[in-house]
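User: For my dataset I need records formatted as: sequence, then structure tokens, nothing else. Please produce one.
Assistant:
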Amino acid sequence: MDHIFGPVNSRRLGRSLGIDLFSDKVCNLNCIYCEVGATDRLTCERAEYVPTEKILDEIDRYFAEPGREQEIDVVTVTASGEPTLHSGFGRILTHLKKKTGKKIAVLTNGTTLMDAQVRRELAAADVVIPSLDAARETSFRKIDRPATCLDLKEIIEGLVVFSHEYTGEIWLEILFALNVNDGKADVQALQDVITEMRIDRIQLNTVARPPLESFARPVGKDRMREIAATMRKNNPGIPVDLLARSGGTGTEDAEVVFGHGRSRQDIMDEILRMLKRRPCTAADIDAIFPCGGPEKVEQYLAPLVRSGQVRTRVHGDRVYYLL
């Protein structure tokens, strides 16, 4: 299947089945830290970039197999880009709710919430995880590199309005890059926005995997702890989590769960689908798909590297595999 991946064991959500609404990266941002790669189509236009019927058909075929509902706790709607730009987004959410009866989570960059139609469509979700990396114009343009059709003030207004209209859970996600949006003024500007919002959780990230741009570097642990402490002090009663991953696709620090009887080829296909959504080390892959150690993983992937189907990239002191 092209648009369904997992299920994965998500530290945040439980056993999560991913629904990716795009084949290419369609987004209104081109974030410097994105592990998916450069945006193929930088746009604010809502359109049917992938046929809605194709995605609905995959959902129906997946859940037609006995026992599928017992494998998952939540369905996570995401995209190789911004999922709410898909014009069939609301229809897909409604179909998932009726078909699965499971909790629905949505990962979004939060830039389309000024649109009342998007807010209405998101009402079908149980958890919405929007991003807001910067509340100052200069920092926003440096880290998220938005399409010219976006206005930061409108984005923030949309987030605030949505937070008070929406009745489900909102987990606000912020990713910091060193010397880009991690200064005191940036943290204070973000706090000013948070004060206006109704949210249930704050999640702080920094660059962890190979980013789109080499100058997107992680913020040190001490500074991240300092930011978290400030957020906790200023938002009593709201959990503030420190997460160690880079942004992009919502695969996060996840472990894929397989049913019995999966063939080696099935697992290799799952590995390739995972690498499409995030770079992984051999140790990462072995932890998810036990292969007998990272060395075995390297042996399995070597032919794919030689053929060019899989690429390698050194980041820090680690070798990552990616598509």
